[in-house]
Design brief:
Helix content is about 35%, strand content about 15%. With about 240 residues, it is α/β, with parallel strands linked by helices. The protein has one domain: Alpha/Beta hydrolase fold, catalytic domain (Rossmann fold, 3-Layer(aba) Sandwich). The strands form 2 sheets. Strands 2-1-3-4-7-8 form a 6-stranded parallel sheet, sandwiched between helices. Strands 5-6 form a two-stranded antiparallel sheet. About 45% of the residues are buried.
């Protein structure tokens, strides 16, 4: 049995992993899908003080309070920043680190520096503290409608706060995997950064690399294939 911790992306929530979560649990695995503060089911907690550190602590505390060890930690999209920030606190509890069509940041980088070439660490006076996300396409219109009504604005502080990483990812003791959604063009929001990370992983002996033939909304479009690939990475059935 494996223990999976699935971290969702921006403007989303734990519900985005509901299909994958069900499939992994049906195979007998332990699955946690913490919801990040201020978005998804925790939208009622949204406020201007929420930043990347808030979301890192959401995940770290969940892992510590549940006393999860030897975990497969998965970060989707923006969740790549969150799981990277977690390493300073719970690296010894991770067996496999997986980036699912996600940002792979270095120390001191921000979401905006990856996606826009901007790296401001604060929000200016009078600036809106919420960001409305881009429209996303789904293979199944019914799934797209279901997810669309649950899409929430995202606190901007999460995108302007730099991540802290004490050493390069390749120097940690766990294995690293990148999964790329190959049907998202580089012109899609954030996807140029995802492709850069994917190409690095594909060329590096320190990474495992896989592809799924769908667009960015991987867990909704290909839940069976995503669950099977995660089990393969974990070395379980």
């Amino acid at each position: 049995m494996a223990t999976f911790v699935l971290v969702h992306g921006a403007w989303g929530g734990a519900h985005g992993f509901r299909h994958v979560r069900r499939l992994l649990r049906a195979s007998g695995h332990e699955v946690a899908t913490p919801c990040l503060t201020g978005i998804g089911e925790r939208i009622h907690l949204a406020n201007p003080l929420i930043n990347l550190s808030t979301h890192v602590r959401d995940v770290v505390n969940h892992i510590l309070y549940e006393d999860l060890n030897q975990i497969v930690l998965v970060g989707f999209s923006y969740g790549g920043f969150v799981v990277t920030g977690c390493l300073e606190h719970i690296a010894e509890r991770i067996k496999h680190l997986v980036f699912l069509d996600a940002f792979v940041p270095n120390n001191s980088e921000t979401v905006f520096s990856h996606s826009r070439g901007k790296g401001r660490s604060k929000i200016e006076l009078g600036e809106d503290w919420l960001v409305t996300g881009p429209l996303r396409e789904y293979d199944d219109p019914t799934e797209g409608e279901w997810m669309g009504v649950r899409r929430t604005p995202h606190p901007k502080g999460c995108f302007t706060e730099p991540v802290y990483l004490s050493q390069p990812l390749e120097q940690f003791g766990f294995t690293r995997t990148y999964i790329k959604a190959t049907r998202s063009p580089e012109s899609d929001p954030g996807n140029a950064a995802f492709w850069r990370a994917a190409r690095h992983a594909q060329m590096s002996s320190a990474w495992n690399y896989f592809e799924l033939p769908t667009n960015h909304m991987v867990a909704s479009n290909m839940p069976e294939e995503t669950a099977q690939l995660l089990k393969q990475i974990a070395g379980v059935t």
